[in-house]
Each structure stands twice: as structure tokens, then as C-alpha cells.
Automatic annotation (TrEMBL):
<dbReference type="GO" id="GO:0004823">
    <property type="term" value="F:leucine-tRNA ligase activity"/>
</dbReference>
<comment type="similarity">
    <text>Belongs to the class-I aminoacyl-tRNA synthetase family.</text>
</comment>
<dbReference type="InterPro" id="IPR002300">
    <property type="entry name" value="aa-tRNA-synth_Ia"/>
</dbReference>
<dbReference type="Pfam" id="PF13603">
    <property type="entry name" value="tRNA-synt_1_2"/>
</dbReference>
<dbReference type="InterPro" id="IPR009008">
    <property type="entry name" value="Val/Leu/Ile-tRNA-synth_edit"/>
</dbReference>
<dbReference type="GO" id="GO:0006429">
    <property type="term" value="P:leucyl-tRNA aminoacylation"/>
</dbReference>
<protein>
    <recommendedName>
        <fullName>Leucine--tRNA ligase</fullName>
        <ecNumber>6.1.1.4</ecNumber>
    </recommendedName>
</protein>
<feature type="domain" description="Leucyl-tRNA synthetase editing">
    <location>
        <begin position="41"/>
        <end position="222"/>
    </location>
</feature>
<feature type="domain" description="Aminoacyl-tRNA synthetase class Ia">
    <location>
        <begin position="234"/>
        <end position="337"/>
    </location>
</feature>
<dbReference type="InterPro" id="IPR025709">
    <property type="entry name" value="Leu_tRNA-synth_edit"/>
</dbReference>
<dbReference type="GO" id="GO:0005829">
    <property type="term" value="C:cytosol"/>
</dbReference>
<keyword id="KW-0436">Ligase</keyword>
<keyword id="KW-0648">Protein biosynthesis</keyword>
<dbReference type="InterPro" id="IPR002302">
    <property type="entry name" value="Leu-tRNA-ligase"/>
</dbReference>
<dbReference type="InterPro" id="IPR014729">
    <property type="entry name" value="Rossmann-like_a/b/a_fold"/>
</dbReference>
<keyword id="KW-0547">Nucleotide-binding</keyword>
<keyword id="KW-0030">Aminoacyl-tRNA synthetase</keyword>
Length: 386
């Protein structure tokens, strides 16, 4: 019965998305169970598509949508934007402001799992604003809905209800237009919503072209006008490593009013946890109230400064422990590079599929990052899984 609320926090991330393509490609070289490799591929979730720009009617504003089905662009009849997207406040008309604010609060209290559930009835609110269709010039109503997330793609979706099940359900509920632009080829059931490739209809100069060709040609046409670009998106996101709890390695960062964010000098590592910590249900890190831990001198200017109160996700520790084990008495460095590069990578690693999308993925990422930093001369931590 406790009310759930969400707050924006300033937190630390590892840029794992920079390694998305390599994490995918190198899977083929590993002697891992196919089930585990499929789980990682799906978790990374590569999508080849395009970003298409829409103008907001009557305002000097534009936004982009990401789509893997540019061949259905002529069938877009409305636009859906994530409730938390920054453009929402800029486009909402006075008439719909109260309804939009109430819906934003409703969406804020839901988890992402709840918002993306296929079982949940689709809900949304009209903003009062319209987007201009980039090909036809038609005005498309702009809605907000909780099934669109600001953290995936651009946070904006062109809704094509005739060719997307989710959009079809939403359009049917709110009596929005449904326009067929893809016809099935041969003896297929192409009743709506028809989500397969086919031949374009009701699509201007692209009518009669197959979907596979049209999804390229439509983007190329808009690209020449500076209103679209080909784009690869990934479902997974950068690794959030900040934790507001005691148990974990303290984040080695100092905050100085004069110098900003300053890394703890290497000679002062590792930062150790204090033992005399008071635990209280504040929602903040227990370290924040420990003055002896928090108050430090800025290593850059010598002025008063504060430690970062958060600790690292414990998956950070398990993502490189196999590099430490062979050299665990070393008190001068994490590990001896010469030794580790002779002994590793691990030939056979025994563990379950439950680690596929977290520990095993994080360990692969950290290995590649350490390779690029000059610590390792191999690409993968575990050659074979048992």
C-alpha cells in the first residue's frame, strides 16, 4: 500500500553501450551454449532502422522518431511521446495541460516493467499539439502514453496502427485513424494489424514497391532533405553503477566546489568503507551522514571537499575478480599485467545461464575496457562455459 514515487538522481554510469557492436560480434567466436549467446544478443537488442524528423505544427520545434519500419511511414496517423520527455511541456496547449500533468504523475508511479507489459491496457492523453507528417504534410495529433519510454530510442514514436499491434490497440481505444499502407504478398492473412513485410499501397511515389526496398528508399529521400538518417539502436543501456547503500566499494570521486568532480589520486586507492556507520531509512547512502568519511581535502586545490557518498554496484567487483585471484597478494596494483596476460583468459568457466545478461556480460565489457586501457592483451574473459 506504500505509494511509489520516482526521483531523478545524478548517478555514475559505465559506458557499456560503446562496446555494443563488439559484444555482439565476438559472441560468435566463443565456445558458449547457444542459449546463453542468444540471451546476450536479445539483451543487447540491436535494431537497424532510421531516425526521422517531425516538425511541431505552429512552433519552431522538431523531434525525431526511431523506426525499423520506414516503409510504413505513410501509415503514420498520430505520434506518441513518453510522458517524461522534455518536449511535452513545450508543446502541450493550455486546454490539455491539467490532463497531461495528471497523466505524467500517473506514469511516474509505474515501473518500466509495468509500463511495457503486453497485458496492460494502453492508456494515454492528447497534448493538444500536432506534428507535420514529413512526406504528406498532414497534421498528426501528438499524444503521450506510458508505453513509450524516454530512455529507449528518442522517446518519440510514429504510430502506424495498421501495421503495429500496440499502435492498433491504442488507436482502436481512442478512435484514432487507421490507414493501411502494406499489402501482403501471395496467399497470406493480411488482416489488420498486418506487421509483416509486403508491398506498399497508399504510399505516393513508393506505392507498388516491396517493404525491404521501400524502407531504404524512403529514408534516402528524406535524408537528401536533411530530415532523416540511418541509425542503429540498442535496447540495453549504459551500466548504472551508483548505489545508495553501504555494502560496496566506495566510488573514488571527490566533489569540490571550486574544482568540480575530482578523481581520488591513485596513491590514495582503494577508498575503504568506515565501520561505524549509522543505518537509517532515508533513501540515501548511509555514508552521507558519516562526517569522518565524507569530509576530505581536495587533491587538486587543497580546499574543503566531500567524497561521493554512493558505492559501486557489487557486479563491478564480480566483473573482474578472476583477474585478481591469481595475484591476490599484490598490494601495489590490481594485478601484475605480465602474469595475468600469460595465465588468462579462463579456459573453462562453470556457471549457470542465470548470469547471461549481467555477470557474464559485465565481465566481457570490463575485459574489453581494460584491454583498451593497456592492461590486458586478450579480448574475452572466458573462452568456454561449462
Amino acid at each position: 500500500g506504500t505509494e511509489v514515487t520516482k526521483k531523478d538522481l545524478t548517478q555514475w554510469f559505465f559506458k557499456i553501450t560503446a562496446y555494443a557492436e563488439e559484444l555482439l560480434e565476438k559472441l560468435d567466436e566463443l565456445d558458449w551454449p547457444e542459449k546463453t549467446k542468444i540471451m546476450q544478443r536479445n539483451w543487447i537488442g540491436k535494431s537497424d532502422g532510421a531516425e526521422i524528423e517531425f516538425k511541431v505544427d505552429g512552433k519552431d520545434l522538431t523531434f525525431k522518431v526511431f523506426t525499423t519500419r520506414a516503409d510504413t511511414l505513410y501509415g503514420a496517423t498520430y505520434v506518441v511521446i513518453a510522458p517524461e520527455h522534455e518536449i511535452v511541456d513545450l508543446i502541450t496547449t493550455d486546454e490539455y495541460k491539467q490532463a497531461v500533468e495528471e497523466y505524467k504523475e500517473y506514469a511516474r508511479k509505474q515501473s518500466e516493467i509495468e509500463r511495457l507489459s503486453t497485458e496492460k491496457e494502453k492508456t494515454g492523453v492528447f497534448t493538444g499539439a500536432y506534428a507535420i507528417h514529413p512526406l504528406t504534410g498532414e497534421k498528426l495529433p501528438i499524444w503521450i502514453a506510458d508505453y513509450v519510454l524516454a530512455t529507449y530510442g528518442t522517446g518519440c514514436v510514429m504510430a502506424v496502427p495498421a501495421h503495429d499491434e500496440r499502435d492498433y490497440e491504442f488507436a482502436t481505444k481512442y478512435n484514432l485513424p487507421i490507414k493501411r499502407v502494406i499489402k501482403g504478398i501471395g496467399d497470406v492473412d493480411d488482416s489488420l494489424p498486418f506487421v509483416e513485410y509486403g508491398v506498399l499501397i497508399n504510399s505516393g511515389e513508393f506505392t507498388g514497391i516491396k517493404s525491404e526496398e521501400a524502407r531504404i528508399k524512403i529514408v534516402e529521400k528524406l535524408q537528401q532533405e536533411g530530415r532523416a538518417s540511418f541509425k542503429v539502436n540498442y535496447r540495453f543501456r549504459d551500466w548504472l553503477v551508483s548505489r545508495q547503500r553501504y555494502w560496496g566499494a566506495p566510488i573514488p570521486v571527490i566533489h569540490c566546489e571550486r574544482c568540480g568532480i575530482v578523481p581520488v589520486p591513485e596513491e590514495d586507492l582503494p577508498v575503504l568503507l568506515p565501520y561505524d556507520v549509522e543505518f537509517a531509512p532515508t533513501g540515501e547512502s548511509p555514508l552521507k551522514k558519516h562526517e569522518g568519511f565524507m569530509n576530505v581535502t581536495c587533491p587538486k586545490c587543497g580546499g574543503k571537499a566531500l567524497r561521493d557518498p554512493d558505492t559501486l554496484d557489487t557486479f563491478v567487483d564480480s566483473s573482474w575478480y578472476f583477474l585478481r585471484y591469481p595475484d591476490n597478494k599484490n598490494d601495489k596494483e590490481p594485478f601484475n599485467k605480465e602474469w595475468i596476460n600469460k595465465m588468462l583468459p579462463v579456459d573453462k568457466y562453470v556457471g549457470g545461464a542465470e548470469h547471461a545478461t549481467m555477470h557474464l556480460l559485465y565481465a566481457r565489457f570490463v575485459t574489453k575496457a581494460l584491454r583498451d586501457l593497456g592492461y590486458l592483451d586478450f579480448d574475452e574473459p572466458f573462452k568456454s562455459l561449462g
